[in-house]
Amino acid sequence: MSDTLLAHRTEAPASGRQRTFSWALIAVGILVALVIPLFVSTYWLQLAFTVCSLGVAMVGLTMLTGAGQLSMGAPFFMAVGSLTYVVLAGSPTDSGEVIGFGLPPVAAAIAGTVAGGIAGLIFSPIASRLSGIYLAMASLGLVILAEHILNNMALLSGGFNGRRSPDFELFGIVFGRTSDPLVIFGVPFGRQEWLWYLGIGLLLAAILFARNIKRSRSGRALQLVANSDLTASVAGVHVRAYKARIFFLSSLYGGLGGVLYTLAMGSIAPTSFNIDLALKTLAIIVIGGIGSIGGAVAGTVFVVCLPLVLQPLLGYVPFLANDAATASYISRYVYGLAVILVLLFWPRGLAGIGAALASGFQSRRSARLAHEKEVEDA
What we know:
By secondary structure, the chain is mostly helical.
């Protein structure tokens, strides 16, 4: 009895310290996020916003793959969201080459997100009946369709040359270039500074919502579906309905990611949402760790930043030192190699590495607490 009470008294303060430490980390993270635009150049802010925009779509795709559904159609739903945003928020040209309605950017962004979800809802009856490679091929057809639409519906998309993305605006603040920017601590806040806050805020919201879904009753039902359709049916789960719902939710994420992605690129073009992006999304979810929300973000960082890492190395590696070998071109081979290595040796991807490090830290901490208890008992 006394040993049990002693163990309880020993663990309670430790648990309290752990909660305090977690909240302290959160507070430090928020503070760092707030001050980053004061110290980082616009180039790195734009890169970070690109990661955030693609990361939002990948969180949604990871929720889908975590439910056992392999889709390569994320660029299609991103294209739907992006096209809806530029049409609704944009203005028509004087020559009438493109259509624009001039709606508030916030309303256009919400409409773009919803449009991506509606497109997913239309496709969901097919998605709920397919799985594995069959769903992957069917959804890849959507990406080919998106590129065709963007190329040929010039009145909406601007055709092959694309169309400029309207600046975002929130609470009277224009997320674009202005002659009279707000100056904070000597730093003029322009397009990239404000987009940084928008991107990091929406990415965190997307992650938190996805985690709550994963821990909910629906999330547990989707886990049963991922393990076995038959087992899920026996447990009383309506398999097709849940597959359709998670596909719809993933498409909503894709629509929002598309809106952010077109803000990051500054324009919408057919080449922005092609098969190349579909292959990148596949590399992201595999390298990050299939079904892992944190892994989706880590995989996005890896894929987006890899060309920057390779660029300084091109002149030092003999078989890469030629005019045809660009960092973007070589990175495709590295993605493929990384996918193969992950599937063969570390199926949990980057998320598994993080989990292993956290587990090792927890083991060392538990051993230290046990040693301290032995010392106290002695």
